[in-house]
Design brief:
Layout (H helix, E strand, L loop, with lengths): L11 H26 L5 H47 L1 H14 L4 H12 L2 H11 L10 H26 L4 H26 L4 H27 L4
Helix pairs in contact: 1-2, 1-6, 1-7, 1-8, 2-3, 2-5, 2-6, 3-4, 6-7, 7-8
Length: 234
């Protein structure tokens, strides 16, 4: 028996969740580490600060991902109920809105009216059409808020550990650990950008380089604060 080949497409939400968590965790911890290295030689303080930032950031990012995705789901459901009520109470207006959508797609005359009649005869199709092309909203599944929260949490933890590992391996050579940390972070950021371009569209090396520049520049913000604090300017 012949089987229909299955197409596999990347999930945009998971990709964005992964990039959000990994980049945020990495940049946040890298900035803290660089700021502390220029200010103190106490490796214990560096560990405590980095691990505290890792825990707080990962929990915070996971929670924000959950609540924001849940809010998008509730908004979609509320607008869906409103559209259903309008389809029931003001069908002429809704029919005109469908007509506008199809006219923008190039349908005219009898063909346009036929398309409107066909869609109006299928309430589910009409509802989906209005949600997507009038309100520009995408459905959010019931399990998506939790999934987004978990992906962002896990990605933030992984990203946060990347700049910290050199300090765990080289606890007595903090400045060398800082250099290795920057290089490891740059490599991780490049890999994330490369993966993004491979999964979506774009030039892999350019996307990777863009991610490196943005991430390392943000991370060096912590280094700048450390320099200012060390110089007692603030």
């Amino acid at each position: 028996m012949r089987t229909t080949p299955q197409e596999h497409h990347p999930q945009a939400t998971r990709l964005s969740d992964f990039i959000l968590g990994s980049q945020d965790g990495l940049v946040n911890v890298l900035g803290i580490l660089l700021g502390l290295v220029i200010s103190t030689n106490n490796v214990r303080i560096i560990y405590i600060a980095a691990l505290a930032a890792l825990a707080a950031e990962s929990i915070s990012m996971g929670a924000v991902a959950y609540t924001s995705t849940r809010a998008r789901r509730l908004l979609y459901l509320a607008e869906e109920q409103r559209e259903l009520a309008e389809m029931r109470d003001v069908p002429d207006i809704e029919r005109d809105e469908v007509r506008v959508i199809f006219r923008d797609w190039g349908f005219t005359g009898d063909e346009l009216e036929e398309m409107v009649r066909k869609v109006e005869a299928k309430p589910k199709a009409m509802l989906d059409l209005m949600m997507a092309f009038e309100l520009h909203l995408s459905p959010v599944s019931e399990d998506q808020p939790l999934n987004s929260g978990l992906v962002v949490f896990a990605a933030t933890v992984v990203g946060s550990f990347i700049p910290l590992i050199p300090f765990l391996v080289l606890p007595t050579m903090l400045h060398l650990a800082a250099v290795v940390s920057v290089l490891a972070s740059a490599a991780m950021l490049f890999a994330v950008g490369w993966y993004e371009a491979r999964t979506t569209l774009g030039v892999t090396w350019r996307s990777g380089l863009r991610m490196v520049v943005i991430g390392i520049a943000a991370g060096f913000g912590g280094f700048g604060i450390g320099l200012l604090a060390n110089a007692r300017i603030i």
